[in-house]
Amino acid sequence: MTFRLAALDDMVEFPYVATCADGAFSEAYVELTEAFVIEVEGQPREPWPEWTQPSVIQPWPATHIRYWFAERRHESLPGYPVYEPVFPGFPATLTDEQADANFERFMSTRAQRIDQLRGFLGRFHVTLETSDAGLRKLDRWIARYGAFLTVRETGGTSFDIFLPAWRDERLGQNVIFDLATFIGEVVIERNPDVPWTAQGGCSAVG
Questions:
Q1: Going residue by residue through the chain (206 aa), what tens digit of pLDDT does each one get?
Q2: Radius of gyration of the chain measured on its C-alpha atoms
């Protein structure tokens, strides 16, 4: 006899299937399809969850003239190294093995990524430091330039799933990722009992 449980998480609606056959139990996140929704809820659902739709970049509204110079400074982005996990995709749908591989990629490259960030910020005369004074200077840089690193998207958010890859218009998301990594290192430096851990297939402090 085989038991099968199909469900959608209440919060993020990741499709989940658990089976038990001959005493062996297995569970996995699966692809979200209309057929799966019908199986769980008995009928199709509209509108379809936004995050399942393809990521599409939308133009930002026009910025005030005082921001134009700051925006143009990001012409220095081309050539910034792209971060790519071993297994891109929704973190909660990755297997433990895939999540572990992604975490190992993050841990083995984070020092190099921070060095790349240090070189990039040097073009703005910002020295990457973990001191309070250094962090205040970095905070001022983010306040002035940070908004121009991201893209305005409809559908799925590429920053969460690394798809499409962070190239071309999405290149700035690599800088955001490296900034987050640096801040994580600062947290750990000041709280040695707080390590890097893998949560849900992504890298996080916890």
A1: 778 887 776 545 567 788 888 778 888 777 777 787 778 777 776 655 555 566 666 555 555 555 555 555 556 688 899 999 999 987 777 888 998 999 999 999 999 999 999 999 998 899 999 999 999 999 999 988 888 888 777 666 788 889 889 998 889 999 999 999 999 999 999 998 888 987 543 344 43
A2: 21
- Cα–Cα distances (Å) from 122 to 76, 117, 138, 180, in that order, read 11, 8, 11, 17
Q: Quote the crossing angle between the two packed helices 96-122 and 172-190, to the nearest 10°.
A: 100
Which pTM does this prediction carry?
0.67
Instruction: Map out the domains of the chain as residue ranges.
Output: 2-48, 55-205
What is d(CA 5, CA 19) in angstroms, rounded to the nearest whole number?
Answer: 6
Question: Residue 122 contacts by C-beta under 8 Å, 6 or more apart in sequence?
Answer: none
